[in-house]
Structures are given as structure tokens and as C-alpha cells.
Amino acid sequence: MTQDAIPSILKKIVDTKKLEVAKAKLDKDFSSIKAEAESMLKQGNAPRRGFANALIAKQDAKIPGIIAEVKKASPSKGIISPNFDPEKTAKQYEQAGAACLSVLTDEQYFQGHNHYLQLAKAACNLPILRKDFMIDSYQIYESYLMGADCILLIVACLADSVMYELHKVACELGMDVLIEVHTLQELERALKLPESNFNIYGINNRDLNTFNTDLETTIRLKAYIDKQSTRPKLLVTESGIHSIEDMQLMLANQINSFLIGEQFMKTENPGDALANLLHSL
User: Fold this and answer.
1) Tens-place pLDDT, residues 161-172
2) Alpha carbon separation from 225 to 112, 221, 229 (Å, rounded)
3) Cα dihedral 141/103/166/5 (nearest 10)
């Protein structure tokens, strides 16, 4: 994995993230945040809500498992939700039948904030993914302390050694891991991670170089997993799910879990948008 192989927008975000993590370490050093997280884990007073289990429960009930995203903006679209309210949105999503939430915490490119995750978690009982660009173990301990139930690892921006370390730390802390891939090569790397009950494989249908989406990406990579794996994998399809037909295509190909954000957040009431989608199936 070389820097040249990272899509340009992702490289820009990762470069910014490196500076952010370095600054965070000046405010609270690595050993301190690690010790704080491990102490909390040992005390057992902050159990995780079980992100993967929530998706599996929907799958077992033959109900689509929606990871509904709490998202204010994106680099390509700008402001998506002008009246952004993470608490209100979290409550709406829960009432509408979401399995889990995904909360953007990246500030510079998505106008997110760590506090948004804490607000959303306090407002509902759903498991929550911290949607950010993880490049350092420091962020994994930080995610645990802010209450994340699951963290995101984007294979495209991580060397294997770093990916293994971040995965190891997250699992030790009892958090689930959404491992995001865009290509067959990334999937092959992801499947080499240790088998774990915490593993969720997210297939992103968006090409990070062109920003085009192709739902066949999920179908193609699932077929590869089915051929290569000795046991079933928990799969999530990401990006490009805009209609009932899109969801039906995935369900017909035994994809039951969906990460959907912009489609809901661009409406006045994201919860209603989710409820209408589920009721139309």
C-alpha cells in the first residue's frame, strides 16, 4: 500500500487527519488516553451496545438492517442538512426502525464533531458507528471514551500493519469494526484480518477517484466473498442506495444491511424518510 495508490481526496483527508491527531496528542498524550480507556474497560461501566448484533438481529428477522447516518455535510455536496440536529435525528431514526446509527465526527471535510456522537448516543438506544478516518490507535481509544460502539477502518487509506493494529485495539476494547472496501484488491487485504465476531465488511459502491457509484460493486465483491470464505460474513452495502428498487436489488442478492445517509439527511425529517422507505418494501 503506497501513498500513490490512495485516491486523491482520501489522501488529502488523511494528511489533514495526521495533523489533527498530532495536535490531539499535545492536549492528551497517547499513554494517558490509552490508560483512561483501559481503566474504563476494566471497570465495566460503559458496555458497548453491539453494533454487529443489531444488524444480525434484523437479518434473522428478515428485516432490512439500516445504518442511518447522522451527517451534516460532505466534501462533494457541501451542506446536506441546513437544520442539522444530531439529537433530534437520532431519536427520529430510532423511532423509524433503524438498526444502528453512523455519526460523522470529521470536522474539516464533513462538518462533524465528536460531540455529535455523544449527543446522538444519549438521545437513543441504538448502537453507534464513529464515522471518521482512523489512522492511529490514539483515535480508537478516543472513540471508546466518547462512547462509540463501532469504528470504521477504510482499507484504501491504511497500510496492512496499521490496519491490523487498529483492528486489534478496537476488538480488545469490545468495539465492532466496519471494514470498508471499494475494490477486489482492498477486499483481499481486508479478508486477511483475523476472523472476529466484531468484523463487519462494508462494500462502498462509490469510486473515490471519480465519485461515480455502481451497485454492481457490492454484488461482484459479495460473489467473491462467497467463493473464498469458509463461513458467512456480515456485509453492508454503502453509497448509491437511493430507491426501493436499489434496496430490492440488494435484498435479491442476499445483502440485508445498508448504510444510508444523504438520502435521509437531505429531507426535512430524516426519520420519516427512513420510515417511508421501510414501509414501501
Assistant:
1) 999 999 999 999
2) 33, 6, 6
3) -140
Name the residue ranges covered by the structural domains of the chain.
Answer: 3-280
On the question of pLDDT at 14 being above 60, the answer is yes
So what's the pLDDT on residue 3? 47
Superfamily of domain 3-280: Aldolase class I (3.20.20.70)
Question: Which residue has 477486489 as its cell numbers?
Answer: 184
